[in-house]
Amino acid sequence: MIVYALYIISKSGGVIFYQSFSKEAAKLFMNDTLRLGSTFHGLFAIASQLSPVQSPTGGSSSGLQLLQTDTFKLQCYQTPTGIKFFLLVEPSAPNLDSLLKTIYELYSDYVLKNPFYELEQPIRCEQFDIQLEKLLSSDSTKH
What we know:
By secondary structure, the protein is an alpha+beta fold. The chain has helices at 30-50, 97-112, 126-142; strands at 3-9, 15-20, 66-68, 73-78, 84-89. It has a single domain (3-142), classed as Beta-Lactamase, CATH 3.30.450.70. Strands 2-1-5-4-3 form a 5-stranded antiparallel β-sheet. Strand 1 and strand 2 (15-20) form a beta hairpin. Helix 2 runs antiparallel to helix 3. The N and C termini lie close together (6 Å).
């Protein structure tokens, strides 16, 4: 499985983390990543309002979870606190729910437990980067 990129978006819609993992993917400037991140956030919000099906808890829909095209697959995991993890992968990739939850665990362990990290601010945590790279390089060998 080829992982193209990971976006972590704050509950207010700001991109707090972006990492490209593919050499084949186009190189993006910071403004492009911010524009894409806010677009993902907007699509998520629109999808949650337009859905005819309510969530099992009785609230609104859980929003955009999967977008599949001929050239990529985008899967999202929203945490209970509203942080969204978007993973862009090759179209033939299997369901990414467990991988996204593992990335969330890394975020919880290495970012949220970092005493120097401020919520809603860009993530700059070397241990998170290292563990994420390990996870995605080992995960790409599994599939």
